[in-house]
Design goal:
By secondary structure, the protein is mainly α. The chain has one domain. It is built from eleven helices and two strands, in the order H-H-H-H-H-H-H-H-E-E-H-H-H. Strands 1-2 form a two-stranded antiparallel sheet. Helix 4 crosses helix 7, helix 7 packs antiparallel against helix 8 and helix 9 packs antiparallel against helix 10. It starts with 11 loop residues before the first helix and ends with a helix.
Length: 336
Amino acid sequence: MSICLAQDTLSPSLQLLLFTVCLVVAVVLAAAIGVYRARSVVGPDRFPPDLALWRLALAGVIAATIWLGLQVAYVAVKAAAVMRTHPGEHFDVERHLNANDYAVLATVPFIVGFLIMLALDRSLDRRTLDSIGLGARHFLGGVLRGLLGILITFPLIICSSLIVEQLYRAVHFDHPSAHELLAEMKQTNQPLVRAALILGAAVLAPLFEEYLFRGHIQTFLVSIFTMSQRRPHHAFEVIVTPQPETLDPSAPNTPSLDYQTPPPPTDRRSTRAVWMGILLTSLLFALIHPLWTAPLIFVLSICLGYAYERTGNLWVPITIHALFNTISTIEYLYFF
């Protein structure tokens, strides 16, 4: 995240003006597309009832484990090499990892994790990709909606960054000036390494993270919360119909029992279940990022989660995420 850097070059009055303009733009655009409409977050029910959730969970868990495991294993190997060459020296990530290492970490784990999750989804149930909105038919519409979504998301992040930075200064919390990947991009003089870092930040990370967090984790959580809040749906309902009164007082007035199949619920999801899934996914998403970026990442993730639930198209949050990272990268490399 590099947006906080802008505050060091702006006076308080200009910061207030920037905050106001960005907030007005975000609020007006959000109102124009109906964000404040009741149940606007409840979009198409993308997950068919007969598609087993355990398959979605299994693919996500395996891919996430491999993705994180590759990063941990790589750092562990580098730490072991330092310990061999410099016995007794404490391994420090910032000091012992260089641009080449960050280029590997920004590309290889994401590529491997994405391919494994893709293979698992296709092998376990071929309908999964289309159900979560990652099919080819979703691509163009998702990109176009993502272009609109970034116009709302980016001003919100700027407003959030101005607030968060003021809170950090109030509590005297000192944080890095930018994400380590951005710092390595600017410092390296190797074009291929810089290209790999940019590719990882602008394309590979958004693609894999949205596939995992929105396509698998959020979809799974929303489905679980929906099932926990849903009224039990019985195969039959007993309809009690009283018999009409007769003129014969001695005739029994016994109601008739009629077994009917009730209609299926028209909307299986509640607004509460959807927001619970978005918020919990956003919390998990923020926790995998550096601590000082977590508040802004949480806000970004809420926007991504809302866009995904609203449209049911995974290419929408992928596009917003990719554009956000691209803008942040360009801002840091060429303006600071």
